[in-house]
Structure formats: structure tokens, C-alpha cells
Amino acid sequence: MKLRDVVAGANASMYHRLDFQKIRGVYYPRSEAEVVEAIEQARAKGYEITPKGGGSGLSGACTGGNRDRFIVSTLQMKELLTISKDQGYVDVQPGATPDEINEVLEPMGMKLYVSPSSRDIATLGGLLATDGGGNDTWANGTMRDNTVRVKMVLYDGRRLIVDWEGVRSDDAELALELNKKDMTIHDVASAHGTLGFVTELRVTIRPLVEEHLMGAIAVYEDFDALGSALDRMIKSETPIRYGEAIVEAHKDVRDDLTPPILILEFPEKEKASIAETTDFEEVDSGELERLKDIRIKLPKRNPNEGVQAALFEGYGFFEDSLRGMQSRMEAINGLLIEDGFEPFAKYGHGPSKWYLGDNTPAFGLIMHSREIRPTDKTGKELFETVLKIVDLCDDMGITPKPEHKWPFSDKAKKTRIEELRTIIGEGFNAFIFEPECASETLSSMV
Amino acid sequence: MMDIKTVRKEHSINYIPLLLLTRIPLRISARLMSEIDRCVRCGSCLQFCPLFNVTGEEQFSPRGKLYLLQVMDLIENDEELGRDFRRLLFQCTMCGRCKDVCSSDVDLLKIWHEQRAKAVGAAPFEFEYLDSLRDSLANVYNIYGLDPDDRAIYWLDEVEDEIPNIHDRVYTNGKTAEIMVFLGCLMSFRSSQLDVVKSFLKALEIVDADYLVMGAEEFCCGHPLHLTGDESGADNLRKHNRSVIEAAGAKKVITGCPGCLIQLRKYHNFESAVAMHHTEFFDHLLEVMPATKRTETFAYHDPCELGRILDVKEEPRSVLNKLGVKYREMDLSCCGGGGLLRMTDPNLSDKIIQLKRATERLSETTVVTACPSCREVFLSNEIQTVDIVELMAEAFEGGGG
Q: How many structural domains are present in chain A?
């Protein structure tokens, strides 16, 4: 074992206690040729490949489970290859982050509109692998909505170009097979690195809009009131530009706020139409920044006593589950408390957009959740609670980890990927398909 | 934990099997573990870490190192990993930027300090390259191993022409003054620092300060030992400095070296003397300063130990503004000279300054800074540099064009 191999397990999920002996090598390629070389080495030795980006995701998929594998990092693949302002795209290597890209684009008056809160570290490759987004997915879509095409290297070294029309490859037979299956960007998005290694992405860029926005805070009596307000916003196709909920928060980190609240930003001329969907109070720019700061730091701050953990990062409330949030929140918190977790913070993007496993778009509240880590729980016990949450979500019409950070229970997505893997090979990140939500592996890593 | 030399001496053996010594576990106390566990591994620190920026590999990053501590119980029995980890702890500039940007409020600098001390304690033989430094500090009280009496010799003759009474300014037993100047090892012994020393002392003369220079009675401030986690060694040096400064009745201790200032301000525990950076002293003293005649635009490099660790950010800029110096801000990243990196891994240190030189186009400008250690890094990489106090002394004398 070498330190550089062990450290490849570093990631923001709670699945980080790995069997390091199984990490057989770590590669930091700079080019497609170096990616191909790493994959060849893995193939020659019979190891799997796990692609890794910034490690800011919360599914644990970038760890590769506990199988004999090479971890291939994109952290040194950061080149911006082409900028086409006229045609509105950039070609970029998968290790660049939205912040890095926008640092180049913004002086040119252009922007990549993908803004997860981890946009300083989340890589484009990782964002597509999880179909991530930020608080602006309502306005700008998820990562897949902003992806035009990708170039990929497969386990057997063959190359693909995948776009919204289908697949191209030097191997005509392979392309034909995959096109028969209608493979598109939908399939690469949220595949959690199970199909191949993305070496290049073409992503949409648009002019930087200098729009005067006003800030507001909406405070609700209970979770149903919050959910109903969001439901009205979605139905009216609300023109808000920024919508962030603090659903509940521990006293040590909420300052003077009284959740549930929504922090909103919208064009001043839309004030009346927003008022038809929710009551709100205007705030000045300083207060707006303060509110945003409280929200953005919730996943990173800790209570005065104890340490927060992301036991189960996300819940997607939509349609009935959004309108009936109160009972569902009570059920979730009831389960957490019964299993010994003190709820710490729940917050998220609303209104927001995500895709279900069958590629249907869903609109609602993506609620992230953090708990105070109990000191007396084993990894297995923690993971048992995770599985209970997944069942509870299924029962209550809530998408588990809606930013597709939980591939393990998504039957529709897994079935589709398995179908494609029979054609393109199964050498990438196979632990995701292990039985019962890969529970044996994941519970050993908590 | 017994030092390897003591073990060898006490047991009259020249060789101790490596295995015995490397079996020393890297166990972490519950208190420290709870601090380490505050890291949520979000990765936001990566882009700010100078070591990560030049290597592109996670093990050099703060998240990587913290992660290794979080999973230490899984790897602590691996001798090779233990050795590599101890080495890794010294592949860091201790610039503190990771602590600064950490939203989880993890006190990373404190963790690095504690872990360095543990590393040296656990496997002193792996750090034999630090022995000459430790021996110099123990025997002659400076980092260069030079005769302590030479502290005031190196620069006295050079300064004498411009400050004829400079010999009277050197402390000897019984002399008192309001201000004690603490030059530090670099400024006392390095010819590359001579212009800064001259300017510093001339500026003090011009403002008619009542000052003494510690001369041969100045011991190293202890900062290099502090950076290796050797607080007791550092304390021996501090005690001497404290006794001299208090015997001289100084109310202020002024230094141009941020590393020395950390030690003087945080660890010397003076009864009444206040430790100040020279930019703080002159900025507080003078509302107005004569305008510089320099017309070029400088690049201001905020020394990490001054700006970030001691939070002295305003005064250097205020002095530059009072002098009418035009400058642009540089990125707040380390020059590569901190944390003893030039000694522990000069190759990485060079890479850091070379990257900075390229990204900030430093070959086209003069860097203005306020730290002798940063100055050494810039000069050794053929980057023109000037200390703020040089610009100030020039302006006081009506020059600088």
C-alpha cells in the first residue's frame, strides 16, 4: 500500500473507511492517451476502474466499493480545449470545475450555468456522473441539460462519442448496437462512472445576464405550508432565479432564523407574480448575502457539541409528497430519532428539478439532510438506518437522493445501465450493482 | 518517548532494528480525533493548497492529510505508510490557508503542528536532517551554526557609515531603551538582507526612536523548532530573549520577520513589552509619510505568517498607501518558503515559487513584501523584491527614484 493509494478514498460521503488493500493503483492522467494506458494496465491485471472527480459527492460511488481496482482521478484533466462563444459551447476535460471554467468565461461575458454549492471542487465529469446541479436547476436544468456531448473510453479501450442523438464510434458495430438501444446523454448522466471514463465534455455556455434581482425571505408556519408554496410556484412556472429552503436547522447554526423559510431572488418586475404564490418580505442585498451564507455553510458547519454527518444526504419531495410535507417530515425525523440520530439541518433547493431513473423530469424540493453523528453506532447500524430511509422514501413517494447521488436502489436506472454494460463491458465501478443496495460493501465503509 | 540518540547512548548500541522503532503507533487522542472528525472532506481546501497545486495529487492536500488521520486506525500498523505519512507532514508550508478557507472551522494549523511533534517524537531517526538545525540552535542559538558573537558583526560595519552611533545601539548588560529591535537570524546573518536591515535602522533613526538592537544577546526566536513541534527546545531560546528584553526595560519589541513575530507575540509571554511588526510600528507612529518617488507598480505579497496567521493585513497596505506606492495585490498563496519546506523538501518549495512566478507574471514586476523569508525565496528565483521598510526609508530620505 502507498499513501497516494490510500488517500484516493477521501470523499465527502460517509462511505470512506475502505479496504485500502483493494486499491491497486491510483492514476492522475492528463490526457485521453494516459487514460487509455491506465485502463489497459487495469485490464491486463483484471482490475476494475473507478473514475473519481473532486470527491465532493455523497453517494460513495467514487470509492469503487471494496473491489480490486484502479482509481483514475480527473484532477489533472482540467484543460479548457475549445471555447465557441458564437455557438455557445466549450469543450473541456472532465476535471475542470464550474468555477474554473467560469473564471475564464466571465471576462468574455459568457457563463456555464451549472452551480452546485460545491462548484469550487466538483468536477464536470463528476457532476455528469451524478447529474448534479445547484439551486438554479429550476432555471437552468441539471448537468445533463447543459451537456451537449461526451467522449468516453470504455474498459476495452474503444472510444465513444455520445450526444443527444445517439452514439458514434470508430467501431461501427458497437455504435450500431448502442444506437439500437437508443443510448444518449441520458444514459451517461447519473451513471456514477459505471459505463466508461469520460475524457471530454462539450457543455453549453450562455451570455452572462446582468439582471437586477431583488431578494426576499418567506417564512412558513409548517412544512405543509412550505411545500404548498413550492407547489404553487412550480405550477405557475415561477420566474424565480434563486430559491433555497432552510427547512430546519440546529440552534447553533441557524442564527436568528426561524425555519421553515425560503430565501428567494427574482427580477423586480416579477414581484407581483411571486406574491400570488407566496407571502414574502423583501430584504436588502446585505441581508440576502447573510441568509445565503447561513444556508451555504449548513453542510460544513458543526454544532457546538458533536459533529455533523450526512447519513442520508437527500430527499426529493414532489407532487403529493411536496404538498404533504408535514407528515413525511415527521416520519423521517421520527425514524432518525428512533435510530438515535439528532436531526441537525435540512435545507435545499426549491423549486428545483431532477430526473427520475427512467429519465422523467421531476420538479419539487431537493432537501439535503444532516444529522449529529451518534458516537455509539457501528457502521453496520448506521447503514441499516440508511436502508430504512430508502424504504420510507419509496413508501412516501419521495425520491431518495434526488440529485442522483443514490444509484444503489434506483431499479430503473440500474436495469438500463446493466443492459448497456452487456454491450460495452462491465469493468467500471461494478459494486453499484451488488445486491441489496450494495449493503455489504457500503455498510463496511461507514 | 525517548530520543534515539539517548536510546543508543544508554544502551551502548549503535544500531537499533528499524522495525522496533517504526512500530510506534500513530495513535490519536480522543480530543484530537474529535477535531479531526470535524472535517467533512468537502474538498474546498484543495484549490488553495500550494502543495496540491504543484503536485496535483491528493495526498499533499489538507483534505488528503486529514483523511489519513481519520482512517489512521486502519493503516497505523503499516510501517511504510507510517514513515511516508510522517514525511508528508513536513511537505507543507504551514501557510494556514487551509484553516482560513475551512467552513467546518477545523483548526488545521494546530493539527499540523501537533502531528509534526508526534512524528518527530515517534521516529526521530527519520528526521536526522534536522539535527544540524537543532544542534546549531542548541549550541550557538542561530540557524546557521555561526558564532553567536557574530550576530551584530555581519551588518555593523556596513551600517556604520550611515548611522555613526550604531555601536551604541547594540545591547549590552545595563543598557535600557523603550524599543528593542529583534532582527532574527535571517536579517542578522544574510548579506541578502543587509539593505533591509540598513533601511529598518535608518527609519528608526529618522523618527528619533529610542531603540537598542539585541546583537549577540539575541537568540533565535524558536520558530524553526516550533515548526518541528519542539516546544521545549524553543522555550529555552525564548526564555533567554525574554530575560534580555525585560532587563532592557523595553516596552516594544519590533521585528521585520513575521516568523519571529509569531514567537515574540504568542509564545514569549512578556510581562509588559508588546511585540510588533515594523509595518505596525511605523504605521501607528506616523499619520503621514513622505511620498515615494518610485513610479512603477509593484506587486504586494502578503506574507502568510504576517497576514494570515497574525492577521496583520492593514498596516503593510496602509504604509504603502501613505507612501503613495502603487501596487497590485497578489494572490494570497504562499511563496513556498514557509513551514521549513525549503529544508524538508526544497524541490517542492521551488515548484511552488516557480508556479507563482509564472501565474502572477513576477518576472515583469518587483514584489514588495515584508518578510525576510519570502524575500529569500524571491531572490533565489531571480524575482526582484523590496521590503516595505526599504521603500519607507528611501522616501524619508527624499529618494527612491
A: 3
Q: Which residues of A touch B41 (CB under 8 A)?
A: 10-12, 16, 55
Residue recorded with cell 480525533: B33
Distance, in Å, from the CA atom of B378 to the CA atom of B303, rounded to the nearest integer, reads: 12
Which burial class, exposed, middle or buried, applies to B191 when counting CB atoms under 10 A from its CB (0-12, 13-18, 19+)? exposed
**Final residue belonging to a domain, choices A176, A207, A238:** A207
Rounded to a whole number, what is the distance in Å from the CA of B298 to chain A's nearest CA? 24
For B56, the closest of A75, A300, A307 (CB atoms) is A75
Q: Are residues A43 and A164 in the same domain?
A: no
Close Cβ partners of B397 (under 8 Å, ≥ 6 residues apart): B202, B206
**Residues B307 and B222 grouped into a single domain:** no
Q: Which of B58, B75, B103 sits opposite A300 (nearest CB)?
A: B103
Residues of A in contact with B42 (CB under 8 A): 12, 56, 118, 121, 299-300
Burial (CB count within 10 angstroms: exposed 0-12, middle 13-18, buried 19+), residue B386: buried
Nearest CB to A297: which of B34, B43, B103?
A: B103
Pairing between β-strand A48-52 and β-strand A69-73 as defined by DSSP bridges = parallel
For chain B, the domain total comes to 3
Contact (CB<8Å) A307/B34: yes
Q: Which residue of B has its CA nearest to A78?
A: B56
Maximum Cα–Cα distance for chain B, whole Å? 67
Environment class of residue B64 by beta-carbon count within 10 Å: exposed (0-12), middle (13-18) or buried (19+)?
buried
Judged by a CB distance cut-off of 8 A, whether residue A74 touches chain B is no
Judge whether A255 and A268 are in contact, CB under 8 Å. no
Quote the CA–CA distance of A242 and A239 in Å, as a whole number: 9
Q: Which residues of chain A are within 8 Å of residue B103 when distances are taken between CB atoms?
A: 297, 300-301
What residue type is B354 in one-letter code? Q
pLDDT tens series, chain A, 446 aa: 899 999 999 999 999 999 999 999 999 999 999 999 999 999 999 999 999 999 999 889 999 999 999 999 999 999 999 999 999 999 999 999 999 999 999 999 999 999 998 999 999 999 999 999 988 899 999 999 999 999 999 999 999 999 999 999 999 999 999 999 999 999 999 999 999 999 999 999 999 988 899 999 999 999 999 999 999 999 999 999 999 999 999 999 999 999 999 999 999 999 999 999 999 999 999 999 999 999 988 988 889 988 888 888 789 999 999 999 999 999 999 999 999 999 999 999 999 999 999 999 999 999 999 999 888 888 889 999 999 999 999 999 999 988 767 889 999 999 999 999 999 999 999 999 999 889 999 999 98
Give yes or no: residues B273 and B333 share one domain. Answer: no
Cβ separation of B67 and A3 shorter than 8 Å? no
Cβ-defined contact of A16 to B41 (cutoff 8 Å): yes
A92 grid coordinates: 473541456
**Residue-range definition of the domain harbouring residue B384:** 297-396
| Residue A307 in contact with partner chain B when CB distance is under 8 A | yes
| Domain interval for residue A91 | 80-207
Q: Look at A302 and B56 and tell me if their CB atoms are within 8 Å.
A: no
Q: Indicate if A342 and A282 belong to the same structural domain.
A: yes
For cell 497574525, the residue is B310
Task: Report the alpha-carbon distance of residue B186 to residue B198 in Å, rounded.
Answer: 14
Residues A255 and A390 in one domain: yes
